Amino acid sequence: MKLVKYLYKMRKKNLLLILGGIYIFTLVTFGVIYWKVANESAGEFFIFQNDINMNTKVNIFKKNLKIKIYNKDFNNIISRLITFEEYKRPLVRLRSDKDKNMYFFAFDKPLGENWAEYYYLLFNGQGITHMKIENVEESNVNNMTSTYKLNVSLYKILDKNNNENYMIFRKEESRKLQKVRSITIWIKDYPIIYEELFKGKDHLYPTSFYFMKIMENSVSFLDDSPLVLKSVANGKFKYPFWNFLYFSAVTITTLGYGDILPNSTMVRVLVMFETIFGVVIIGMFASCLFWNNK
Q1: Domain named Potassium channel: which ranges (predicted)?
Q2: Domain ranges in the chain?
């Protein structure tokens, strides 16, 4: 008699494990199906809550540019670039006569506050705190008037414990900083900006204000960010699998938060089958779990 009860308990335990395995397998399988459908339809078969869709685009934008900055302000400025449709600005790629490098230029207007803040936060995330204008020459781009080419050196403070990120350093104080890299910027109306802001070309200025002012009036981008932004904003990317594994979990458990919704008949049918399947498995699991052995 004891042996029969023992075998019955073993059978019950195995059944619970089997049902649990089927439940997880169903969740993952439907998650994969949703993920494939979303990528093949470029997301049109689903309705995403704004923050989920935006977070996906921001993360893919950073991944494509290999940016490892996990900062809320940085994510917010990328979101703002997408929201204000900065990716729709007309761009042209030109080669510099001197260094033979390719640069992206915006011809409708200077970059403005959003792009200036983006580049400031990008460099700030790399530890860059100061800048120095090394060389200035008049260099009209594609017949644009009043355009100047700036060679700018970027620095970081060696002692991270001090509070000098917002100080202006004279040339003789430059030992406190380390040069990180040099960049080239084309800017409009530089003499006016220099007259208003800068004390002298030998000073090192904090990027928190001076660099942003330069970038606001710049007509050149510093990297491929505008192209990547355009690609991501137009949906030319693959949605991450985890979003749809989450959607599958919310569906099979009948929670239905509503942050991701089906937007096609095919997906609605899949959701219906998964929900019914999930309810049946949970019912069988509960029935088996609370079965009276007596």
Answers
A1: 236-288
A2: 2-43+247-289, 67-233
CA distance 233 to 143: 31
DSSP 211: I
Q: What is the pLDDT of residue 13?
A: 77
What tokens were used for 197? 């802001």
pLDDT tens track for 201-216: 789 999 988 999 999 9
Please name the residue that has the structure tokens 């693959």. Answer: 238
Q: In the chain, where do the E strands start and end?
A: 46-48, 91-95, 102-106, 130-138, 147-157, 177-188, 205-206, 260-262
Q: Is 14 helix (H, G, I), strand (E, B) or coil?
A: helix
Other residues' Cβ atoms within 10 Å of the Cβ of residue 22: 14
Q: Is the CB of residue 178 less than 8 Å from the CB of residue 154?
A: no
The token duo for 218 is 């710049």
User: Distance between CA 196 and CA 151 in Å, rounded?
Assistant: 19
Tokens found for residue 279: 């309810």
Average pLDDT rounded to a whole number, residues 124-133: 93
Residue 144 has pLDDT above 80, yes or no: no
- The pLDDT-based confidence of 103 (bands split at 50, 70, 90) is confident
From first CA to last CA, the distance across the chain in angstroms is 12
Least trusted range by pLDDT, from 124-128, 194-198, 221-225:
194-198
C-alpha closest to that of 148 among 196, 91, 219: 219
